[in-house]
Amino acid sequence: MRRVAAVDLGATSARVGVVDLDAEPLRVEIVHRYQHQPVVWSDGTLRWDWARLVKEVERGLGFAAAAGPLASIGVDTWGVDYGLLDQRGALVAPPYSYRDSRTAGWEAVADRLGHERLYRTTGIQLMAVNTVFQLEAHPRNELDAASQLLMLPELLVHHLTGVVTGEVTSAGTSALVDIATATWSADLLAGVGADPALFPPIAPAGTAVGNWRGVPVHLVGGHDTASAVAARPPGAPVASAFVSAGTWLLVGAERPVADTSEAARLANFSNEPGVRGGVRFLKNVTGLWLLERCRAQWGDVPTAAARRGPVIDPNEARFANPPDMEAEIRAAAPLDAAAGRDVVVRCIFDSLAAAVARVVDELSTFIGSRVERVDVLGGGARIELLLRLIEEACGVPVAVGPAEATALGNAIVQRDALA
Is 182 helix (H, G, I), strand (E, B) or coil? Predict the structure, then answer.
């Protein structure tokens, strides 16, 4: 039995799963799960409770190791966020959350750097959360105290192993990497006043990077979407799309080369590196975050489904981090006070399905044919109503991928590295 541990940190749930690589089919056993969210720090900023996340990861790895020998460990997290290390290898400060308001002026930064220049260089969809805009707004005293900048997957790898490294899929979310060379863009780093010495070399997924308590650690698709797509159902037609459904909906198609054309830029598609080469040509759509924030207010969600009602645009900035998500949705729809929470939930699902369908329709232009199938992966694959609505909105069959696709893809990359 070859067992590997997949550390999978989503923006609301941290998981440690174990996969027996000799089993058929591969199955993820979650040995530890921890719900979390960014917290308001003493200075009023929104940051991750990184010390607690690390503690929970080590707790989960302890459970995994106690159940039997591990052949490898891999780590993935959400993209765009990063941590700063000082000369002793300690965190300068807790990592910011991409939902912190400090990037509110991102469009002015994009104008200064040049929209065409940014896209031509990186191929990344312009969004307020991009690392390039976070760095521009980062307090200079923290940057001055730093000797290394690590994206979050590699920040956790550093904690486990002491190794300083970058990884191609997590670095690729930053809008700071030259997509043609897979290296940090000196031009863009200079544009935001970032010291190139902060940025480690970028290694491919599958690279061995030290060990944790004697267990080898391998880089995987550090960006969780890259790992999730690596676990797509087999036999996907060439003209197929994927939806990695979690806090965000990542909607796109796998392509052999990047498309940094003016048409792709104006359509605001991302070209994110894949774990086996090529790119994931996709758009980020605000996803189950809407439901997660309502659930946090309600404590639970209605089980009965209301009939179809109004539809909102989940990508509107108003939904990024409102103090009252339910009120924001009701105002945007609009829904009157008499509408029950079941109507709010149905509005969310209809709106997500419509947003997916818009991207799938746009994809057809770029892949040269109509999309024939949509593969839904991740936690959202458990929601039957959402699957049905996506299928209806897209007008093509939906294939249901694994709910724990990210952890499974993480393990698959480890398997390939161990081969």
Answer: coil
